[in-house]
Amino acid sequence: MSHSPKNLVILGATGSIGDSTLDIIARHPEKFDLVAISGHKNVDKLTKLCEKFNPGYVVISDESLYLQLAENISNLNIKTKVLAGESELETICTLPEVDMVVAAIVGSAGMKPVLATVKAGKDLLLANKEALVVAGDLVMSAARESQSNIIPLDSEHNAIYQCLPDSYIVGETPRSVDKIILTASGGPFWNKPIEEFSHITPEQACAHPNWDMGKKISVDSATLMNKGLEVIEAYWLFNMPINQIDVHVHPQSIIHSLVCFKDGSLLAQLGEPDMRIPISYGLGLGNRLTSGAKTINLLEHGKLDFIEPDYHKFPCLRLARDSIESGGTAMAVLNIANEVVVDAFLNHKIPFTSIAEINQKVLEHVSIEPVSSLEQLLELDIEVRSLTSQLIVN
Ligand code: NAD
Ligand code: MG
After folding, report:
1. Same domain flag for 44 and 137
2. If you take atom 41 of ligand 1, which residue's CA is the nearest one?
């Protein structure tokens, strides 16, 4: 039996998750119609993607690049309409014909379109964890109201989702579950002596041992802030208290996470560290699609290790847990501060060790409120960015 194709939007199509998503779409052209794609600044890549995939719309969120992109597209003689500016991201996600949105923007810049997607009742395939860390409260309650399905693409959360029964709906507390265990590769500095941390360069931090990813998440993986953000992400997606969310360092990145059930059973999802596996599971909405990923050969690996995380070496993981306990806007404050400090580190303005130090200072300086509205979060964003920048300079 043939099904009609799903109408899809990809936010952040020019990035690493965008690449993996488009790779799967290209393998299943009969299953997906690309309604729209977005990118921030990469005009050449957006042009190439339009030429190859012929989407209905392309959005360049940096408005100043509109003319350049529009000229390229008009030279191609394709039907793609060119839009520019941040607010058009919301436009494409909420078009009536759209079924599902892949949220693959990096950072809280993705928060507004993610919220708009969920409010419009569309399926949200979420890679953009920062959007959920900042606006988890608003996103999850909007999803409950509109009955929008959220499907996690982040490999750990996708693994947990795969281990839960088919009837499970993201946002509910899963039944009969004692704990979830997020695995962490430990990043490139797991075994590095802490005394050497202040000399770590952005190039070293971006060279992840197992995964090939964007720069921001690579640095987050090196500080273990990525795992901290993922604990917060799990807290929102699976509606579980923080003491039921554990982290195990698992350097081989073969087991992507585990669910511990009340009867003593542990279920895990295993696979090559290839994002096409979780993304294809999301795109297929539970029906498995070929993804191009290899099946793992366990005999080649032999053994798998699990180690307690080192909170002393990686204080960002502790900060993330603390921010859940503080509640309210604390998670948003931590995430926003972290975006600014990671950018400063990537631009050689601060040493690696300052990332955690400044994040902690910002959390101590900003007063934490209950989350009430998107406007409140947008104001907080401005306040925290400016405070963090001051702390970076001083
Ligand atoms: P990336 O840097 O490769 O791509 C980011 C995308 O976001 C690009 O398309 C870029 O144009 C767009 N973008 C950047 N700034 C923007 C802005 N201000 N406004 C609008 N668009 C903007 O990042 P990535 O590695 O693909 O990661 C994307 C998201 O997925 C992140 O939240 C990351 O944490 C998450 N994620 C990534 C991986 C991975 O393997 N890469 C795994 C799990 C989760
Ligand atoms: Mg992950």
Report:
1. yes
2. 213
280 alpha carbon to ligand 1 midpoint, in Å?
17
**Same domain? 30 vs 50:** yes
* Residue ID of nearest Cα to ligand 1 atom 34: 217
Number of domains, the chain: 3
- Residues 82, 192, single domain; the answer is no
Within 8 A by CB and 6+ apart from 192, the residues are 200
- Same domain? For 119 and 38 the reply is yes
Amino acid at 367: S
CATH number (domain holding residue 385): 1.10.1740.10
DSSP alpha helices (H): ranges in 288-394? 298-301, 315-326, 330-346, 352-365, 374-393
76 and 217 assigned to the same domain: no
Last residue of a domain, one of 148, 175, 209: 148
Q: Report which protein residue has its CA nearest ligand 1's atom 7.
A: 105
Ligand 2 mean position, distance from CA 275 (Å): 9
Instruction: Give the N- to C-terminal CA distance of the chain in Å, as an integer.
Output: 64
Burial grade of 100 (CB within 10 A; 0-12, 13-18, 19 or more): buried
| Nearest CA, atom 18, ligand 1 | 109
Same-domain status, 234 and 343 = no
CA of 253 to the centre of ligand 2 (A): 10
- How crowded is residue 367: how many other Cβ atoms within 10 Å of its Cβ? 7
Q: Are residues 277 and 159 in the same domain?
A: yes
Residue 368 predicted with pLDDT over 60: yes
User: Which ligand 1 atom is at minimum distance from the Cα of 275?
Assistant: 40
319 in a structural domain: no
Pocket residue to mutate for ligand 1, from 63, 106, 237, 346, most atoms within 8 A of Cβ: 106
Over residues 224-279, the pLDDT tens digits come to: 999 999 999 999 999 999 999 999 999 999 999 999 999 999 999 999 999 999 99
List residues near ligand 1 (CB under 6 A): 12-18, 39-40, 42, 61, 104-107, 109, 127-130, 154, 211, 213-214, 217, 275
Of all ligands present, the nearest one to the C-alpha of 185 is 2
Convert the pLDDT of each residue in 44-91 to its tens digit. 999 999 999 999 999 999 999 999 999 999 999 999 999 999 999 999
Residue 317 in any domain: the answer is no
Nearest atom in ligand 1 to 38's CA: 9
Domain span at 385: 327-394
